[in-house]
């Protein structure tokens, strides 16, 4: 199968020019002006942007959490990702306490295999790591899982103590792999929650009121310090607040290899959303919580200056009916997480590029290239270049739609609400290619499944 994309404005993290792209099989074969080739299928991209497929380095598909399971599986979640211009996800496999991480990985392979529409990779969530099992981490890296997530939050569930953090960080560093950190002091937060519950508070807004930004900042500070001593590259996930970002900056200024991602929800929503009537605020209950609005300016600045290097979704959808409702009697029982894998590329174009917060190149870098480089997918993915995978989006910068769970052009996630319901957004993915397959064209899914597991490279290595 060959495809010719003609006359598009090609935007990568560094380029901006008009040219044709010729694709043969799974990869880009030629890029140039007026290419003298014929192809099985030709797309005229005049007036459109042509960008590398989005990479979302933070999703939770088919994940048991909060007494239920996230509503998207690897089919529905990756199909929604494709509609939204994302052609690679890095999902979080989980190792249960006492279980080998390799067994945990096997379970996530079973969840994804044969279901995914776009390519996928895995981080590994570590819930314990005795010395006797440290050797597994090398085997994971050999299997293409070259990053780990550890939690300071959720005591009794995913939380690990500082000793486990140090031990795992140290081994990850020795293996040339990366640590992802959920940085929030869950032990202190649980005490604050206890006080709030004892005082009779039940509403969703108490999710935010019991999770002070200072406890996120403390987590970042501690993770940076441990990573510095353990000599491992660190990546703070879902950073939500000015206070936490300040700690990233301090670490970076000291020379520590620490990067951080934020998520669209922290850029476009704030904690007043929890006050919506009829328990609707539960739709935005996620961890970290939405913050006071003034934090958003600081996050945008971080994205421009490089202290925040990527925008991921933390896509962890739970239906309002039957799932979020588990917490009607207490905010502590609302499953934590929100949908977003489909919205990220458009939301960041509409709310970031069109508002002048970030450039076109930075948009591509934040939604694709940076994650590819950080997580061992570059240059196979994350750019448009001869030899790279033909993961390409033809993006219409002028198309305007109103996001609604009822509009089949704007909502494919298997969840009964959209966090962006009623938002008018300009800039939509029109044609989406994954390794040379047209997976979405003008809101129609053309290919079912066909996504593959990607073995990622280690820190400092390229994936070819
Ligand atoms: O609320 C969230 N973020 N749910 C997913 C689990 C996590 O902490 O990433
Ligand atoms: Zn987390
Ligand atoms: Zn997450």
3D architecture notes:
The chain is of the alpha/beta class and 464 residues long. The chain has a domain at 53-374: Alpha-Beta Barrel (TIM Barrel). The chain is 28% helix and 23% strand. The chain has twelve helices and 19 strands. The protein has helices at residues 74-83, 101-112, 136-142, 162-174, 186-198, 205-209, 213-230, 242-253, 264-268, 295-305, 344-353, 360-374, and strands spanning 2-11, 16-24, 27-32, 41-44, 49-52, 54-59, 64-65, 68-69, 86-94, 119-125, 147-151, 178-182, 234-236, 258-262, 310-311, 392-402, 424-434, 437-441, 444-445. The strands form three sheets. Strands 1, 2, 3, 4, 5, 16, 17, 18 and 19 form a nine-stranded mixed beta sheet that branches. β17 (424-434) and β18 form a beta hairpin. The protein is globular, with a radius of gyration of 21 Å. The model has no long low-confidence stretch (mean pLDDT 98). Bound molecules: N-(aminocarbonyl)-beta-alanine and zinc ion (2 copies). One zinc ion binds at residues 58, 60, 238, 314, 316. One zinc ion binds at residues 182, 237-238.
């Amino acid at each position: 199968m060959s495809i010719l994309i003609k006359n598009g404005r090609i935007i990568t993290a560094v380029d901006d020019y008009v040219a044709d792209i010729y694709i043969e099989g799974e990869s880009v074969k030629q890029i140039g002006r007026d290419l003298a080739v014929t192809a099985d299928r030709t797309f005229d991209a005049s007036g459109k942007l042509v960008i590398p497929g989005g990479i979302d380095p933070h999703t939770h598909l088919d994940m048991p959490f909060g007494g239920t399971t996230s509503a998207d599986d690897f089919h529905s979640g990756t199909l929604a990702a494709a509609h939204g211009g994302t052609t690679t996800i890095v999902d979080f496999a989980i190792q249960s306490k006492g279980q080998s991480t390799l067994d945990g990985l096997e379970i996530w392979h079973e969840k994804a295999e044969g279901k995914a529409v776009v390519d996928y990779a895995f981080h590994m969530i570590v819930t314990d790591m005795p010395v006797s099992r440290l050797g597994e981490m090398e085997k994971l890296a050999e299997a293409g899982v070259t990053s780990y997530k550890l939690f300071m939050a959720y005591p009794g569930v995913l939380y690990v103590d500082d000793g486990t953090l140090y031990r795992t960080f140290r081994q990850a560093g020795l293996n040339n792999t990366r640590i992802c950190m959920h940085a929030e002091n869950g032990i202190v937060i649980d005490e604050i929650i206890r006080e709030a519950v004892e005082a009779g508070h039940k509403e969703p807004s108490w999710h935010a009121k019991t999770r002070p930004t200072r406890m996120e900042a403390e987590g970042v500070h501690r993770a940076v310090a441990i990573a510095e001593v353990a000599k491992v590259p660190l990546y703070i996930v879902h950073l939500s607040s000015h206070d936490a970002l300040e700690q990233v900056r301090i670490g970076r200024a000291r020379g520590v290899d620490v990067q951080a991602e934020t998520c669209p929800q922290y850029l476009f929503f704030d904690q007043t959303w929890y006050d919506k009537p009829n328990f609707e605020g539960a739709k935005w209950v996620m961890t970290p919580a939405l913050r006071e609005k003034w934090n958003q300016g600081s996050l945008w600045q971080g994205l421009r200056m490089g202290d925040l290097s990527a925008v991921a979704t933390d896509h962890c959808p739970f239906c309002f009916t039957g799932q979020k409702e588990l917490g009607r009697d207490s905010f502590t029982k609302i499953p934590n997480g929100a949908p977003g894998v489909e919205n990220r590329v458009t939301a960041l174009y509409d709310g970031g590029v069109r508002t002048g917060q970030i450039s076109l190149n930075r948009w591509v870098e934040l939604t694709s290239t940076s994650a590819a480089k950080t997580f061992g997918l570059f240059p196979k993915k994350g750019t448009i270049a001869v030899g790279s995978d033909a993961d390409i989006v033809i993006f219409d910068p002028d198309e305007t739609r109103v996001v609604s769970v009822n509009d089949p052009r704007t909502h494919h996630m298997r969840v009964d609400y959209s966090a962006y319901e009623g938002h008018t957004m300009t800039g939509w993915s029109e044609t989406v290619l994954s390794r040379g397959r047209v997976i979405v064209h003008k809101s129609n899914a053309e290919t079912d499944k066909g996504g593959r597991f990607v073995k990622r490279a280690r820190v400092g290595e390229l994936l070819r």
